[in-house]
């Protein structure tokens, strides 16, 4: 209900809004929250249409009650929608208390009434409605019906036209807020007519041939001239942040496909609620062919509308497909001429996954912004994921919360399980697990992106430092007669990767981040370079190799030239192999340390400690190993006696080291600066925006309630199963549980990532 202030203005409902007090009803559900006080007043004033409305909600359903303690009612509903409606009636004073195959017990405003259940006219996908026929304690026969507005409006009595217009306005308003709507109506029956109808109903229900058709005809006959009571609207409440998460992931160029066991109507409603589908789309294609040819034609017609050029012989994919024939091909990304959505049913998907149609399905589906596959089996979920892996050069991530999602989660490259009300099967089969769908954007846009950047930086730096380290030996070979003499001291070679350069690169690969998590979420475009593999590929590897070759030339020839025919300040010569080796390895270590400093975007105490600590350890170990004492104790192992103090005490040596560092680092700094200025990448542009934004005070985060505007209404979006009414009437699903109620033995369907409220 709507809440109005003293001036008659509608106000937004929030946590501070006063709730309706249901304390007058001892059987009310304490978790149920409602805010419109006028409806409660109408119930208390014994308004006849209002009482009839809630009486219908308490009688026309397939819910099973369970009462372990007196007054503590638990409803086992076949769909969450049903449970929400029955709970609403319960709180407003019409408590569904117990059920047997022949009766329904309802406590109406504190008075217990037992209605005789005469027939359940079951729901199916064609009828899109369900009805019950009951006899009241007073002996009145009544048919209560609820269903899709598009269906029930055709069955109403002409006298309901004025109420019908008013109800239509309400339905449009509800649909604009993304609510799931339902129309309810009733009909008073005459005893003679009903006795004749129930006799024919019994004959039809026991017929051996054409039973469904005969029952359908009888249902159509009695469900006529109904009297409209009103409409209900159910909020299909998703977990917090689901629409925003999906919107953010779409901006990061992540294609989102929904694979669900829900029926088409429900799946499309969830699509609209999640902002996957919207009215701004050019068209939402619905593939529901019942034969292989029908599905093929529907897919081709959709593709023709999105990209007519894709049917030309000159099309790249068509040429590739003709050449490769039966070989596997990778389909490149194709751009449609607008924004489209695709909805395909499980029956049609079975044909589309056949060998000759799967390529058509992938091409058509990948042109669409959103794909929703409804009424799919767990196996089909896995087959769809496998299909994308087969024909697209893409990384797939599957996220689910139930046992029916396990095959899909295992098939995808990355599996994510949501721990919730559907058990732990999905979590146990997944690579990552969390409790809320919205955490997915942090997993991908923050931690996933950071991890990718760190891994790429680690690989680039690791290749560079080892190219620079190793290729110095190649240049030295021309001067040593290729005698396999090493440039460096053998202890330096041992400790270079083990001690001197291991911790700085480890610190960078653990802690580095180009921007913090807040900016990563605000600019999801930063995720795109990872999808395109821009930070580490063959070109980047070649650049690392060329940089390593250039650095090795500098690191060999600058120390060589500086040492050639050189004497110390006291006139003694230092142009010997050991002094050259020490100078070359000192230059190398300082250069790679400066390089990792340039690569580090996020400085922490740990990074500082690792880099400065590694350099300090190098000089400490070098002076220790090259000391007189070590030579006297281990003469054969430490031949570089006195080299460190003799060489590193000379100013010209440090000048040569500084020159080597400058020549190695300057081209890198210059190239990065010019590239960012002259040919910036999309991520460079975003980083520039972030730098400018950091100078301004951060804007307050807007807290807005996300609503969609749509002219589309839900057509009975219950997750019902056909035939459940007959099961209740037979009593096979019931066993006595307590003096207050009977309970069913079935397990109700859960509804994925949402819970319901009226």
UniProtKB/TrEMBL annotation:
Its EC number is 7.6.2.1. This is Phospholipid-transporting ATPase. InterPro entries: ATPase_P-typ_cyto_dom_N, ATPase_P-typ_TM_dom_sf, HAD-like_sf, HAD_sf, P-type_ATPase_IV, P_typ_ATPase, P_typ_ATPase_c. Its cofactor is Mg(2+). Residues 740-750 have a biased composition (Polar residues). It is a multi-pass membrane protein. It comes from Quiscalus mexicanus (Great-tailed grackle). GO terms for cellular component: plasma membrane; trans-Golgi network. Mg(2+) binds at residues 401, 405. One of its GO terms (molecular function) is ATPase-coupled intramembrane lipid transporter activity. GO terms for biological process: Golgi organization; phospholipid translocation. It catalyses: ATP + H2O + phospholipidSide 1 = ADP + phosphate + phospholipidSide 2. The gene is Atp8b2_1. Keywords: ATP-binding, Magnesium, Membrane, Metal-binding, Nucleotide-binding, Translocase, Transmembrane, Transmembrane helix. Residues 689-714, 735-758 are annotated as: Disordered. Residues 427-681 form the P-type ATPase C-terminal domain. Belongs to the cation transport ATPase (P-type) (TC 3.A.3) family. Type IV subfamily. Residues 692-711 have a biased composition (Basic residues). The chain crosses the membrane at residues 461-479, 491-511, 540-560, 580-598, 610-633, 653-674. Its main location: membrane. It is found in: Membrane. ATP binds at residues 82, 123, 146, 180, 260-262, 375, 381, 404-405.
């Amino acid at each position: 209900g709507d809440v109005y202030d003293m001036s008659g203005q509608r106000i937004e409902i929030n946590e501070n809004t006063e709730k309706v007090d249901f304390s007058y009803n001892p059987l009310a559900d304490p978790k149920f929250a409602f805010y419109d006080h006028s409806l409660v007043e109408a119930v208390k004033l014994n308004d006849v249409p209002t009482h009839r409305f809630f009486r219908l909600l308490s009688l026309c359903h397939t819910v099973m009650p369970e009462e372990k303690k007196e007054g503590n009612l638990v409803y086992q509903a076949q769909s969450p929608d049903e449970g929400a409606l029955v709970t609403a009636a319960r709180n407003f004073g019409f408590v569904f208390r117990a059920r047997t195959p022949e009766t329904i017990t309802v406590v109406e405003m504190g008075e217990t009434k037992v209605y005789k259940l005469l027939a359940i006219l079951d729901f199916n996908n064609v009828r899109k409605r369900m009805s019950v026929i009951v006899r009241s304690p007073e002996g009145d026969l009544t048919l209560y019906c609820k269903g899709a507005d598009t269906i029930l409006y055709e069955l109403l009595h002409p006298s309901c036209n004025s109420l019908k217009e008013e109800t239509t306005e309400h339905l449009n308003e509800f649909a604009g807020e993304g609510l799931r709507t339902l129309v309810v109506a009733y009909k008073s029956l005459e005893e003679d007519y009903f006795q004749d109808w129930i006799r024919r109903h019994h004959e039809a229900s026991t017929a051996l041939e054409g039973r469904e058709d005969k029952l359908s005809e009888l249902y159509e006959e009695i469900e006529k001239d109904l009297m409209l009571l009103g409409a209900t609207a159910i909020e299909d409440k998703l977990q917090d942040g689901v629409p925003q998460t999906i919107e953010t992931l779409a901006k990061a160029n992540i294609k989102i496909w929904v694979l669900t066991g829900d029926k088409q109507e429900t799946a499309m409603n969830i699509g609209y609620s999640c902002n996957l589908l919207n009215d701004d789309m050019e068209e939402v294609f619905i593939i529901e062919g019942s034969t292989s040819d029908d599905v093929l034609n529907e897919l081709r017609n959709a593709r023709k509308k999105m990209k007519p050029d894709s049917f030309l012989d000159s099309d790249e994919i068509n040429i590739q497909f003709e050449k490769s024939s039966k070989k596997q091909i990778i389909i490149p990304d194709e751009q449609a001429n607008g924004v489209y959505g695709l909805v395909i049913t499980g029956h049609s998907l079975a044909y589309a996954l056949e060998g000759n149609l799967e390529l058509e399905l992938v091409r058509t589906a990948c042109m669409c912004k959103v794909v929703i596959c409804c009424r799919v089996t767990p196996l089909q979920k896995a087959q769809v994921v496998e299909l994308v892996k087969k024909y697209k050069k893409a990384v797939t991530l599957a996220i689910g919360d139930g046992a029916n999602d396990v095959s899909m989660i295992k098939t995808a490259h990355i599996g994510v399980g949501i721990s919730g009300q559907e058990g732990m099967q999905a979590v146990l089969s997944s690579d990552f697990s969390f409790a809320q769908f919205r955490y997915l954007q942090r997993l991908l846009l923050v931690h996933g992106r950071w991890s990718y950047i760190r891994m790429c930086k680690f690989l680039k730096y690791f290749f560079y430092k080892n190219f620079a380290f190793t290729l110095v030996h190649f240049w030295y070979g021309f001067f040593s007669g290729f005698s396999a003499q090493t440039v460096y001291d053998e202890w330096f070679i041992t400790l270079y990767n083990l001690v001197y350069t291991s911790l700085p690169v480890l610190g960078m690969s653990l802690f580095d981040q180009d921007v913090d998590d807040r900016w990563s979420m605000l600019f999801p475009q930063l995720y795109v370079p990872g999808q395109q593999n821009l930070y580490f590929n063959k070109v980047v590897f070649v650049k690392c190799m060329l940089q390593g070759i250039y650095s090795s030339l500098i690191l060999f020839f600058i120390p060589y030239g500086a040492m050639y025919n050189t004497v110390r300040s006291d006139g003694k010569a230092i142009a010997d192999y050991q002094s050259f080796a020490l100078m070359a390895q000192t230059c190398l270590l300082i250069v790679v340390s400066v390089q990792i400093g340039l690569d580090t975007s996020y400085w922490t105490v740990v990074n500082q400690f690792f880099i400065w600590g590694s350099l300090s350890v190098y000089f400490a170990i070098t002076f220790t190993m090259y000391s007189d004492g070590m030579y006297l104790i281990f003469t054969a192992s430490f031949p570089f006696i006195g080299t460190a103090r003799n060489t590193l005490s000379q100013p010209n040596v440090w000048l040569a080291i500084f020159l080597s560092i400058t020549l190695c680092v300057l081209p890198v700094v210059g190239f990065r600066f010019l590239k960012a200025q002259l040919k910036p990448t999309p991520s460079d542009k975003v980083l520039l925006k972030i730098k400018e934004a950091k100078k301004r005070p951060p804007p307050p985060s807007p807290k807005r309630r996300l609503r969609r505007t749509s002219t589309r209404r839900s057509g009975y979006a219950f997750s019902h199963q056909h035939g459940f009414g007959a099961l209740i009437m037979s009593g096979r699903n019931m066993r006595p549980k307590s003096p207050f109620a009977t309970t069913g033995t079935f397990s109700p369907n859960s509804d994925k990532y949402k819970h319901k409220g009226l």
